[in-house]
From TrEMBL:
Organism: Naganishia friedmannii
Domain of life: Eukaryota
Protein's name according to its UniProt entry: Uncharacterized protein
């Protein structure tokens, strides 16, 4: 408020003050003058007043600009700093030589020290599996302080492998390191130690928590990162895109939006669930062998989500799902629970649990009917019902129905 007040009024008020000086304090102002010279004086004073007033307005404008430019310069300084930081990081990546940081003396011997000059892990291509062998999950140190202390360790050493069709659900508390694990698998974060095995980049697909929609046509949203030219070169057709949209329940979209060529601000036009379903459609288009799904269906209704997961499995895509939703357990055969920092004493920081093969639709219907039957009998024979229910529970162990 003060700033605006100064910009608007201070400069003009200061100018008027300046202008009044000759009027108020000049000796000539009080001198006796003849009529002729008086009219000349009034004319010249009026002329001076008008030109000074114009100058004053310009001065007020210039003063305002000066004050705003301070802000703009500090904004520019911020951007320049970020661009400088980015270029610096890119140069370091080019030369692969990070500044060597010595282990601080105060750090306890058993505390690992992770800095960028200290990356010793190995990444190799594996055809049909994603595997981490004794790989720590560590937030890379970016600022000066964390460079000195080393990156924040989320999981000290993680070993687990996912083969073809071993759909794995990754769970754990907020901020425990699930997305960080996905970043390590994606190669965004370094493999500090141990070994990471991942398929070729064309065989693995990542869907993140926040859907990314590029600027372009509706078609571009589905085929991203492919271009239309690449799509045609690969012999893919719009009929195929329609069948993909059908799998994610977005068949109505081209009709509603006026075809695949329509260009819009898709991030504003589509709802949260639609955005996530478009990203899922992208996965069906690219047909990877593995997909890392980072909580990417949390805005999708559970019936559609179920069908999308079923379609993905039928398409032969092995899923690594990061989620908090227990309803998704039934689509997976294994669960990796990360406990990380919450771990007390010598307990492991994660555990891998095998889930029994998920029930088929037919099995589910039969068991539902059986449970319903038991509910009805409850009124008549409680003890027998209990025995029978225990038996059904035992049959179902791991099938996620109870
Ligand atoms: N780029 C980063 N710089 C600094 N710290 C980060 C960065 N990315 C993640 N972290 C930190 O690492 C920890 C793990 O983050 P991560 O995103 O892996 O959590 P998460 O298990 O996926 O959590 P959620 O279930 O809430 O998505 C968090 O404490 C987070 O603040």
């Amino acid at each position: 408020m003060t700033e605006d007040f100064i910009i608007k009024y201070f400069w003009s008020a200061a100018g008027y003050g300046l202008m009044s000086i000759p009027l108020l304090f000049s000796k000539n102002a009080k001198a006796t003058v003849t009529t002729n010279s008086a009219s000349t004086m009034v004319a010249s004073r009026t002329e001076n007043y008008v030109s000074n007033r114009r100058l004053l307005l310009s001065l007020a404008d210039a003063g305002g600009r000066l004050m705003y430019s301070g802000k703009e310069i500090s904004e520019l300084v911020g951007y320049t700093n970020r661009v400088y930081g980015l270029l610096g990081a890119l140069h370091t990546l080019d030369t692969d030589s990070y500044p060597v940081v010595d282990r601080p003396a105060h750090l306890p011997n058993d505390k690992p020290f992770f800095v960028m000059s200290n990356v010793h892990g190995e990444t190799c291509i594996a055809e049909n599996r994603v595997a981490l062998i004794e790989v720590p999950i560590v937030v890379p140190p970016t600022d000066t302080l964390s460079q000195l202390e080393g990156g924040d360790v989320l999981v000290k050493s993680l070993t687990f492998a996912v083969g073809e069709n071993e759909h794995t659900l990754i769970s754990g508390g907020n901020g425990i390191g699930k997305t960080s694990l996905a970043r390590v698998i994606a190669g965004l974060w370094p493999v500090w130690q141990g070994k990471l095995e991942v398929p070729e980049s064309s065989d693995i697909f990542y869907l993140s928590q926040r859907p990314y929609l590029p600027i372009g046509s509706l078609r571009d949203q589905v085929i991203y990162p492919h271009s239309y030219a690449q799509m045609k070169a690969a012999g893919r057709t719009e009929a195929e895109l329609m069948s993909i949209l059908d799998k994610v329940h977005l068949l109505y979209l081209p009709g509603r939006e006026g075809g695949f060529d329509t260009r819009k601000e898709w991030k504003d036009v589509l709802s949260g669930g639609e955005k996530q379903r478009i990203c899922f459609a992208r996965m069906f288009y690219h047909r990877p062998k593995f997909a890392v799904l980072d909580d990417c269906t949390n805005a999708v209704s559970s019936d559609v989500e179920d069908r999308m997961y079923e379609s993905a499995k039928q398409a032969g895509i092995t899923l690594l799902t990061i989620t908090h939703r227990p309803s998704l357990l039934r689509h997976h055969v294994r669960q990796l629970i990360i406990t990380g920092k919450e771990t007390i004493g010598t307990q492991p920081e994660y555990k891998v649990m095998s889930l029994a093969h998920p029930a088929t639709e037919h099995e589910r219907q039969t068991l539902d009917a059986e449970i319903e039957q038991l509910r009805r009998t409850l009124a008549i024979e409680v003890p027998e019902w209990r025995n029978r229910l225990d038996q059904v529970k035992a049959d179902l162990s791991g099938k996620m129905l109870l």
